[in-house]
Give the backbone structure.
Amino acid sequence: MADSPRMRPHLASRPGRARRAAALLSALAAGALAAAAPLRADEPIVVTSCPGQQRIAVTFRLDCSHVRDPAARAQCRPFIENQACKVFPAYRRITGIDLEKACPEITYTVYDKDQWPHPQGGEGGQAGRCSAELLSQFSVLIDSAVGPYDVHELLHIYQSQIGSLPYSHILFGPSQLEARREIGDRYGYEAGFARLKKEVFDPNLEQQFARMKPELRCPMAEVNEEARLYISDPKAVYAYYRELEIGWQKDQAQREARFNRMFAKVSEGRAKKFLLEHGCAPW
Ligand SMILES: [Zn+2]
């Protein structure tokens, strides 16, 4: 999935007294209806424990009510169990971030394509503060040796804790790959690793930089460098999150500089040359 801008929660306009009363009435009516109709036992699916762990730090919830196909629906529970019991702890190990304070609960909502509430043809996923929306084809229908899972939107949720980013998908290449490896999707990991290698060592890399808008060069150099360091030592990705200072800056150059200081530290200076030669200002 390409860029996924954060969803901003918008404040509902304050209803007047009459509207409040009407809202209360309809809420009561809905409550009565809900009490009368047999509640679907499988909506939403809530995961609070994992094999060998009676109580997990963050509760996972999945709303699969927008998925119709029975074959896809059958994958809803395995999907959210994988998120709670495999992907969540994998990112905890990789990033060192304890998410439970910021997000005691994480909610996924999965949609069939024709139910997607966002413009068609855009990205098939969106992360909110402690929530994610995904198309079924990018979530419950993903086929892997460990079953369906998502390493993309959950990483956005984790990264909401590390400060402002120079690029919305910074550290995504190595982090997602390492998560695939951690959860045991060996094929997904190896295929992704080969793809990453191809991108990093693309013989046309210099031409690509030359054609790029100048303001994109430094973030792309960072993405390239983070992948190169990871390829030479997978432990690097764990160090990225531990060495990065957390900070909030409006200024793009300051965001880039903050990440560059981290890359320089993790690489013991080796990253410096490439970053400076590909659009980053000295930091
Ligand atoms: Zn994204």
